[in-house]
């Protein structure tokens, strides 16, 4: 069985069904990119895996354990699945270092000195060691997003979910954030990312999933889905984003 | 024209002051000084007026030279100067009216409210009694800060399990915000001793006052906290929960610290209200500043001792506002300032 599996996951808000039966397998160390128009269900899917949203039907498993449905310990589950948001969501009242070390100290119970050392090491790795004592509002969007990734990584998650993390950044800053994601992929981290950066997806993903109206319409390696899509909807989407000439 | 009118008005007031002033004694000096000062203040009104007129000549000069941007610039300056003259005139009128009110009826108003002899006789004891008000306010504020936050958190308790207790908190807040503070003070201060409840009935009037004000104001402050907590964007909660923080831990480390920063100004507003309401405790016989002042007022048939109380409240309130502004400024600089 795959590392992370989704089995006919259905999610609806009242009358509106957003996910209509998602089946997905993610192997350990794999990078899966979700693409698709807005409203296709990419973000909802990621939020369901992290249990920020309850699912209505189906089942999600991580490493064989069921992690969806009533009675699961969401706090425990989320320690294993990190998520980074489009809008960074750093804690504005804490310094950068405190943002990164808060969860390891309070949740994993690591002592402050060790957590600070580890946090500084992570910040230095992304070139923000000198910003450790700055506050989030003093950083650029790209810097904030890099800190947000480090904050999630400080918890040593088994899976990292990235929800359109470059959508709120201007093109100059996108590169610095994607460099970090690339590095994490090379380190063998299992990742599931919703993205609009097609060429980046092509480069970094093992599997591309095209979502359309709440179902995965097409999935496969980038060379197949992005370069030779089979479905008409996929082709239409890719030509709209300028990836495919018709 | 406004300036000239105001000036004439001030001169008239000054002249009437002059007329009612006794020919000798401290009152002669005081009233003469007031009259001279008002005239001098009114004279300063001619400074902005002169400026305005000077600028007007510049406009016509620029017009003659065909300098359009110059005309525009000087016209704009003229408007500012002219408005300044008009608005200062109104301010002067307001102040002069107040002086007139004080001096009305052969300065009877002044004698009733600001009698120096009465102020001199009462201020020491009234200020000592004001210590009681400060004590009640400080202790209530500490209780209110804690109890209010607790109430707000309980009111926002999530899920099905949180519902019953959240309803209790809501009912408490609704009730104590609805009942006037003076009624709560009266009921607590006179009711608890009558009810012979162990422990509670044995407390003194000051403790009853603290209890009553804490009950009332924690309801207000709970709503202030609630507004602050709900103003923190949900994405902050999502970020904290996604790191594995429980609901309570999210509140403690992420939401409440941000909420408290935002609600400091309205919180201070409520605290000033609380401090002022300490004057209500005189209904249960606590010898606070107001009660002390009333003793003087009824003995001497003069309200100047009560004015002392008013002045004391002003003196303690204004520095708090400035201090809180300073705190907020400093915090903003820390979080937003250049790195």
Radius of gyration of chain B: 29 Å
The first-to-last residue Cα distance of chain A is: 38 Å
Determine the strand fraction of chain B and express it as a percent band: under 5%
Class computed from helices, strands and strand pairing of chain A: alpha/beta
Architecture of the largest domain in chain B in CATH? Answer: Orthogonal Bundle
If you consult CATH, what is the topology of the largest domain in chain B? Answer: MetI-like fold
Number of helices of chain A: 9
The major β-sheet of chain B equals: none
Q: What share of residues of chain A is helical?
A: 25-40%
Pfam families (chain B): BPD_transp_1
Transmembrane segments (chain B): 29-53, 81-104, 134-154, 175-196, 208-225, 300-318
Domain ABC transmembrane type-1 (chain B): 130-324
GO cellular component, one term (chain B): ATP-binding cassette (ABC) transporter complex
Please tag this protein with its features.
heterodimer, A: 246 residues, alpha/beta, six-stranded mixed β-sheet, four-stranded antiparallel β-sheet, 9 helices, 36% helix, globular, B: mainly alpha, MetI-like fold, 0% strand, transport (chain B), transmembrane (chain B)
Account of the protein in words:
Chain B: Belongs to the binding-protein-dependent transport system permease family. HisMQ subfamily. Chain B: It is a multi-pass membrane protein. Chain A is an alpha/beta fold. Chain A has a domain at 4-87 and 159-240: 3-Layer(aba) Sandwich (Rossmann fold). In chain A, 36% of the residues lie in helices and 24% in strands. Chain A has helices at 42-49, 74-80, 96-106, 112-125, 141-153, 171-186, 198-204, 222-225, 232-240; strands spanning 4-13, 16-26, 31-35, 57-62, 65-66, 81-84, 159-163, 190-194, 207-212, 215-220. In chain A, the strands form two sheets. Chain A has a six-stranded mixed sheet, with helices on both faces. Chain A has a four-stranded antiparallel sheet with strand order 2-1-4-5, with helices on one face. Chain B is mainly α. Chain B is built from twelve helices and no strands. In chain B, α5 runs antiparallel to α11. The radius of gyration of chain B is 29 Å and the shape is flat. Chain B starts with a helix and ends with a helix. Chain A binds chain B through residues 50, 52, 74-76, 78-79, 82-83, 85, 87, 89-93, 102-103, 106-107, 131, 134-135, 137-139, 151-152, 155, and chain B through 235-236, 238-246, 249, 253-254, 257-258, 261, 334-339.
């Amino acid at each position: 069985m795959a590392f992370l599996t989704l089995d006919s996951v259905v999610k609806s808000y009242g009358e509106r069904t957003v996910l209509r039966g998602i089946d997905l397998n993610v192997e350990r160390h794999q990078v899966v990119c979700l693409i698709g128009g807005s409203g296709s269900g990419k973000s909802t899917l990621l939020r369901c895996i992290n249990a920020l949203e309850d699912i209505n039907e189906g089942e999600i498993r991580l490493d064989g354990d069921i992690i969806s449905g009533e009675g699961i310990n969401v706090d425990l589950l989320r320690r294993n699945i990190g998520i980074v948001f489009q809008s960074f969501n750093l804690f504005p009242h804490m310094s950068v270092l405190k943002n990164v070390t808060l969860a390891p100290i309070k949740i994993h119970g690591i002592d402050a000195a060790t957590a600070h050392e580890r946090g500084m090491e992570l910040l230095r790795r992304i070139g923000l060691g000198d910003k450790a004592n700055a506050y989030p509002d003093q950083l650029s969007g790209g810097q904030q997003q890099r800190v947000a990734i480090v904050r999630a990584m400080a918890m040593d998650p088994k899976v990292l979910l990235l929800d359109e993390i470059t959508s709120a950044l201007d093109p100059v800053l996108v590169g610095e954030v994607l460099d970090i994601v690339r590095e994490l992929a090379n380190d063998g981290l299992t990742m599931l990312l919703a993205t609009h950066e097609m060429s980046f997806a092509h480069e970094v993903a093992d599997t591309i999933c095209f979502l359309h109206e709440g179902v995965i319409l097409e999935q496969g390696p980038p060379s197949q889905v992005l370069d030779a899509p089979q479905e008409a909807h996929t082709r239409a989407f890719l030509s709209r984003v300028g990836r495919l000439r018709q | 024209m406004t300036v000239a009118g105001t000036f004439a008005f001030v001169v008239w007031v000054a002249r009437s002051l002059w007329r009612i002033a006794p020919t000798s004694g401290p009152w002669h000096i005081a009233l003469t000084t007031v009259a001279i000062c008002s005239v001098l203040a009114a004279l300063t009104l001619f400074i902005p007026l002169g400026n305005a007129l000077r600028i007007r000549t510049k406009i016509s000069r620029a017009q003659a030279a065909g300098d359009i941007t110059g005309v525009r610039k000087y016209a704009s300056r003229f408007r500012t100067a002219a408005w300044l003259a008009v608005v200062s005139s109104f301010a002067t009128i307001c102040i002069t009216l107040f002086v007139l009110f004080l001096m009305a009826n052969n300065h009877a108003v002044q004698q009733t409210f600001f009698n120096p002899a009465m102020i001199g006789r009462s201020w020491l004891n009234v200020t000592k009694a004001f210590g009681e008000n400060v004590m009640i306010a400080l202790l209530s504020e500490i209780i209110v800060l804690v109890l209010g936050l607790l109430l707000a958190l309980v009111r926002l308790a999530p899920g099905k399990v949180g519902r019953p207790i959240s309803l209790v908190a809501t009912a408490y807040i609704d009730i104590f915000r609805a009942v006037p503070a003076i009624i709560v003070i009266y009921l607590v201060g006179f009711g608890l001793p009558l009810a012979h409840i162990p422990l509670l009935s044995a407390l003194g009037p000051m403790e009853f006052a603290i209890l009553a004000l804490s009950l009332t104001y924690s309801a207000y402050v709970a709503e202030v906290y609630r507004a602050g907590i709900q103003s923190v964007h949900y994405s902050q909660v999502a970020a904290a929960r996604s790191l594995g923080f429980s609901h309570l831990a999210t509140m403690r480390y992420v939401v409440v610290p941000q909420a408290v920063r935002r609600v400091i100004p309205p919180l201070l507003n409520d605290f000033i209200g609380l401090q002022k309401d300490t004057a209500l405790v005189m209904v249960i016989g606590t010898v606070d500043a107001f009660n002390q002042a009333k003793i003087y007022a009824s003995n001497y048939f003069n309200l100047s001792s009560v004015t002392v109380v008013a002045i004391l409240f002003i003196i303690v309130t204004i520095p708090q506002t400035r201090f809180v502004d300073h705190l907020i400024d400093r915090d903003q600089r820390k979080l937003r300032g250049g790195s």
